[in-house]
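> run fold Thermonuclease family protein
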Amino acid sequence: MFRKKHFTPHRRPPSFKPQRRDIRQLLWLAPLLLLAGALLDPSLIEPVGPLGATEEVAATFTRCGPGRGSACVIDGDTFKLGDRKIRITGIDAPELAEPRCPAEAALARRAADRLLVLLNEGPFVMVAHRLQRQDRRGRDLMVIRRDGKSIGGQLMDEGLAHRYIGSKRSWC
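> ok
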C-alpha cells in the first residue's frame, strides 16, 4: 500500500519587529493624517472650496435680554443673529449664565463685552464647515473673521477664551 506523506515546511516564527519598509510607510502616513485632521477642523484651517460656506454679516449687536434686537451677544463665544444662535468654533469662553466661581463670572462679563465690541467694529465673515454645521445644542458653528483675522483667536490672545479641544477647562 502506498502511503502519503504530509509535507510541512519549516517556517520561522513570525517576527513582530517593524521592518524598514513599515517605518517608511508610517512616516508618510502620519503627516497625511495630521493634514486631513487639520482640514476637517475649521478652527485650525479655514475651510476652503466645497468644504466651506461663507456668509457676510453687517449688523449692530447689543447684549441679549428682554426687548433687545435681533442681533445680540449671549456670552463670550455665542451670539444670536435673527432666529439663529451662532457658536464661535474653536474657542471656549467662561459661562455667563452659570459661573462656577466669582472669577469666572467677572471674566465671562469681560468676554461678552469684548465680543460685543469686536462684532460691532464693522462687517465680518462667518465661515461654516460643511461637515460640521451645528453642535449638539443646535447652534450654528462658525469661524468668525474680519480682514482675514479670527475674532475667536483675538479673544484667546486677550485671555478671554481658551482653545476648545472637546472639553471645558476650569476658569476658577
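The first strand starts at residue 52 and ends at 57.
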